[in-house]
Amino acid sequence: MKIARLAALIALPLAAAAQAADPPKLVVVISVDQFSADLFTQYRQHFDGGLERLSRGAVFPAGYQSHAATETCPGHSTILTGSRPARTGIIANNWYGFRARPSHPNLYCAEDERVPGSTHRKYTASTYHLRVPALGDHMKRADPRSRVAVASGKDRSAMMMGGYGPDERWWWEGDKFINPGAARRPEALDEVNRDIAAALAEPRAARDLPGLCEPRSRSIAIQDSTKSVGEYRFARPAGDSNAFKISPDLDQATIDLAAGLRREMKLGEGPATDLLILGLSATDYVGHSYGTEGAEMCIQLMALDKALGEFFRKLDQTGIDYSVLLTADHGGHDIPERYREQAITDAIRADAALDIEKMGPAIGKKLGLSGPILFGEYVSGDMYIDPKLTAAQRARVLREAVRAYGAHPNVARVITRAELLAAPRPSGPPDTWSLLDRAKASFDPERSGDFVVFLKPRVTPIYNAGGSYVATHGSPWDYDRRVPILYWRKGIVPFEQPLAVETVDILPTLAATIGVAIPPGSIDGKCLDLDEGPANSCR
Ligand code: ZN
User: Out of 327, 341, 389, 453, which residue is the most buried by the measure of CB atoms under 10 Å away?
Assistant: First the structure.
């Protein structure tokens, strides 16, 4: 081992050896929304672009979004804060704040309800709910000359990864990238938005089906609907910005914007390390709309690999010493209809009777109470008992809800707020955590519900897939928790660590590579040593 390592060191050019000790000039962080560890494993042998390059760095194939509520907002809140949702405060995409906004208690994770007239659908995007700083904030604290730019397909990923004070932050809304609160509009933004408008003005022909994707191109009928998925190749009529969003075109546009901001801001060319953050959302939209195992996802991932390869190639040409960290906000789960054809015969859609709009009134009727009784979303996750009820009534509702949900064959477990308050903070490898541990990592006493409902593994909460989404994530099961964490920098000696690590480890890991100190005790993650040998990137 020692001899092999010495030989490797001697073989390295002197410049490369010296460079490894210096901080990179530019840190690029990429989140691929819904890029599960399972998808990475299935496709990694086929990548020959950017994802192939990253697979030749430090590879953690079992990165964990260790918490239970594996949704986009909580997942993105862990990536650059070093903190689990219990600490970031971002417990879900939406929660109920009966005191925070009594008139419209349903709160969106990335809104600021203090803005007059706002609701969770008509809101001002904000980091107001984020309780902790992100990497860019730490970098600017350490050296105010560090600059931070964010380009993202969703406002919530832009907010949660960008932190409180990025220099530029732009996200997709409708048919272009926006930021209503921005003081100025970079030229790169206008350029990319012009290109998008031009692309939308024309119909788009179907994409080629790579040979690799041919066996996946097979029509699967969605139960209880006239819909089928599996063969779509992203053809769209002129003007269809929603189809643009649910396609590789969204990621390409986001990458173009990030590259443009990099050039215009000269990121990586200043006196301090800069940070460029990309939220690539198309994989998530494709997964929700078509499932994860059809031709659609295959085309999407091969296009993403190619687009990232080109992005890195252009970064190489600048000569800037940059590093890349790629991960995901959560994993994903395919449609049960296809699982059932492919050996997983117990995959099902949830029973419609579990919908909270049916469960709440049913519990009320049994107890002789009127009103909605329960608040929450769909069939699982955080549930809130109507705060207008008396304490005695609420206690009866809780007992009956725990019994009714717990008795349903789709439900794995119901955990109450009292159990969560009493539970210790989880520790140890995240793949060994109990359901209570996972729920505790998602628990915020001010924002979480009165109880939380977990469906059994392989039960898809979308009981009626006739709408726009056929598949989803959000469960406490490992197909939704496990994501790849890939780190690459020029000259890195590749290694792979298959044991479980956490996405909250990313912040201290990256901070160590650029010499930024993180206040002790302020985060949940720990630094991952990116050096394959006896040297240690954490020191
Ligand atoms: Zn997501």
Answer: 453
- Both tokens of residue 335? 């449609």
Do residues 326 and 30 lie in contact, with contact meaning Cβ atoms separated by under 8 Å? yes
Mean pLDDT of 521-537: 97
Give me the architecture of the 1-70+152-272+282-320 domain, per CATH.
Answer: 3-Layer(aba) Sandwich (3.40)
Query: Which residue in 277, 273, 272, 275 sits closest to 257, CA to CA?
Result: 277
What is the residue-wise DSSP string for 218-272? --EEPTTSS-EES-----B-TT-HHHHHTSHHHHHHHHHHHHHHHHHHTTTSSSS
348-460 adopts what CATH topology?
A: Gyrase A; domain 2 (3.30.1360)
**Does 72 qualify as catalytic in the annotation?**
yes
Rounded to the nearest angstrom, the distance between the alpha carbon of 403 and the centre of ligand 1 is 31
d(CA 87, CA 95): 16
Q: How far is CA 487 from CA 50, 66, 96, 160, 324, in A?
A: 12, 19, 37, 20, 6
The DSSP line for 397-434 is HHHHHHHHHHHSTTEEEEEEHHHHHHSPPP-S-GGG--
Residue 329 Cα, ligand 1 centroid: separation in angstroms? 5
**What is the Å distance from ligand 1's center to 7 Cα?**
43
> pTM here?
0.95
Residues of the chain with CATH 3.40.720.10: 1-70+152-272+282-320
Q: Which of 41, 70, 72, 78 is catalytic?
A: 72
The whole-number average pLDDT for the span 287-292 is 98
